[in-house]
Write the structure tokens for this entry.
Amino acid sequence: MTAEGADSPGLREQIARNQQTIDRLNRDLERKSDQVRIIQQISSEITSTLDLDQVLEIVLRATERVLGFQHSMILLKDLAEDTLRLFASRGYDPTGVGAEVAFGEGVIGVVAERKRMMRVGSLGAGIAYITSIRARLEAAGEVAPAGAAAKLPGLPKAQSQLALPLLVKDRLVGVLAVESPKPNAFDELDEILLRIVGNQAATAIDNARTYQMVEKLSRLKRFFSPQLAELILTGGADDPLKTHRREVTVAFLDLRGFTAFAETSEPEEVMGVLREYHADMGKLILEHEGTLERFTGDGMMIFFNDPVPVPNPAERAVRMALAMRDRVAALLGRWRKRGYELDLGVGIAQGYATIGAIGFEGRWDYGAIGTVTNLAARLCGEAKPGQILIALRVAGEVEDLIEAEEVGPLALKGLAKPVPAFNVVRLKGRV
Amino acid sequence: MGILPDEIKPAMQGVIPSHVVTCSRDGAPNATSISQVYYVDPDHVALSHQFFNKTVRNVRENPRAVVWVISPETFDAWDLEVEYDHSETSGPVFEAMDMQIEAIASIVGMKGIFKLRAADIYRVISVTKNVDERIPLPDIDEPAGRR
């Protein structure tokens, strides 16, 4: 067939194909060098901010503009569990931000579990194939039917997915994923480029997240013990600053005679007494796992069973109040020597309250609102020096534990009917 | 320089099912379609071993096989003559295949049931782009009376 020479269709085809290959390689090379240049720009942009949303936005914008991926998303690992949550996406409607993906579920979940990149170009075919095998196995009775399909964020008919684990020193921060409705949409070059973006993204996201946590931690530490603040932050407890409703035991305490004392004493003396008193009461609150809601001079409001539920909140409140009374009795000895006439009064009630952040930007407080707080405050107001007055509900919870005497019913401001109340004398079995 | 050209890679993504022909020790042929032939390196491909089927059994008796893959982009078809080399149950090739199978299985609620037992690695002996077996497209350049 040599006679056909250069006119041979086979040879012509071969030359055309070679040219195609050369063109393709040139295009790839151009694309690559262009992209590497822009990626360098992103790296400076990405490290210039500690705002997590901004970092995510920069990463997604880069994957679209530079790499040309139209559907991209970033999922971050939950701090406590092996779950991913969708934090940002581009090219989806609606966004589905907040959607969860368990480890091992779908392409993204498996990438998170194995901490290895995955590129799939034939999701549709793969699913169809396994579904048909499943049907055969089901028909043969070899597998149980059902097994609900996982509901995953992303395109409903994605054919190609490229998912990259975001790692900082082998620790998973999240997953960066791109997808396409077209099969085989991503190739090895895309893998390389996404990896470059992803390596930078992982560190930037991790830094932003750490910064966000430190900020949040310092805010939480204003209200809660350091341990609890950590627990809330790592997801071990719900964010208590979100408004929620829960049954709590509330204790109010203040110093009888404090107003008169403050009026007749030097401010330095008043501050000295408060400091001693706050320091000692603070220790006892932490010991009994109470939450200090607020200080107002000599007054304190403490509640139990929130933000972290505790067993027997009423018992804790009563035990704390008794310990406080003992402690104040010791302080009183010294105070009396200096001529201060002070004593502790406590009121304790239990019931449902609405709890959450109260205030305004820059000055948030953690607060509880409900009849229960009012009742506790009024009981505290009624308490004579050294008395711990508890409401009926609390008395019912701790009746086996304490010796108490009935002092009610009391007509309290803000409450329609007189309420029964009990003075806690001592723990049973104590003299 | 390996034997597999770069342009064959799109045909090894599982978009269009592939076919594999094997022979038992006593010469009984078997042809089957498979979901994906995996590209390992320029001289090797891998087939997934999920169930103990005839293909798996045959190549362990008689390692020669022919694999047919189609590019979803150009519809080019390739015949690969291959020889079963060994089976892997760990390592990067196995893990990449296993991850992919697990991901897809989990989507259809078959996680744990549909598992990769092994990655069967085949050495590629020859590659032929099989123009004649291409899915027919109008070809205006076809010289008359060529056959």
Observations:
- The mean pLDDT of chain A is 85.
- The domain at 226-427 of chain A is CATH 3.30.70.1230 (Alpha-Beta Plaits).
